[in-house]
Specification:
- This protein has 188 residues and is mainly α.
- Helix content is 79%, strand content 2%.
- The chain contains six helices and two strands.
- It has helices spanning 5-23, 30-57, 63-86, 92-114, 125-143, 153-187; strands at 146-147, 151-152.
- The protein has a two-stranded antiparallel ribbon with strand order 1-2.
- Strand 1 and strand 2 (151-152) form a beta hairpin.
Length: 188
């Protein structure tokens, strides 16, 4: 099911990456550039919820969609983190922690699926909290201004990015602790 509406929304997150990057090369005022990139990121990030809802509602779930959805999410988040590091709005160490964890947990989940133990690394609340924190931090840092005359998005985004980095490590340790007994049992 490569061309269902839910799958097309998932593909849109991947195709959005060069568009969001391209905004920073457009000849426009920096504040407008930040606003456009932020709105684009938020819009495409929301398609993650929408594609899942539509897939269930329209009965268009598929193995390919289940595979592509987290890949698109990771591409979008990693690209945004790299943009923020390039713009010097996010610490490279926090970005490396988050991107490294995404790679490690994806590999762990693949391995656990191969040995028939994917339940041990199913999504946990820590991972959801990490995602929520980074999905608020990224638009705040892309915007890099003051909202409603009171909210310094750079300060809040920086704090939330570090919260996401801490939750990233914590959730990775959680997933590894759940997986190690399964790995030991299969290796013996």
């Amino acid at each position: 099911m490569f061309l269902t509406l839910p799958t097309l929304l998932t593909w849109a997150r991947i195709f959005a990456i060069p568009l969001i990057i391209g905004v920073y090369y457009m000849p426009m005022e920096p504040g407008l550039r930040n606003l456009v990139a932020t709105v684009m990121f938020v819009f495409f990030a929301l398609t993650d919820w929408l594609d899942g809802w539509l897939a269930r509602r329209l009965n268009q779930t598929s193995a390919f969609g289940a595979f592509l959805d987290p890949v698109a999410d990771k591409f979008l988040v990693c690209a945004a983190l790299l943009i923020l590091v390039h713009l010097q709005r996010a610490d490279v160490f926090a970005a490396l922690i988050i991107i490294g964890r995404e790679i490690a947990i994806s590999a762990l989940r693949e391995w656990m699926a191969q040995i028939g133990a994917s339940r041990s690394v199913a999504v946990h609340m820590l991972g959801k909290l990490k995602t929520m924190s980074q999905m608020v931090a990224i638009p705040f840092l892309l915007y890099d201004g003051t909202l409603f005359g009171a909210i310094d998005t750079h300060v809040w985004g920086t704090w939330l990015m570090w919260v996401a980095a801490v939750l990233t490590v914590w959730s990775m340790v959680y997933y590894l602790r759940k997986a190690i007994p399964e790995i030991r049992a299969k290796v013996r």
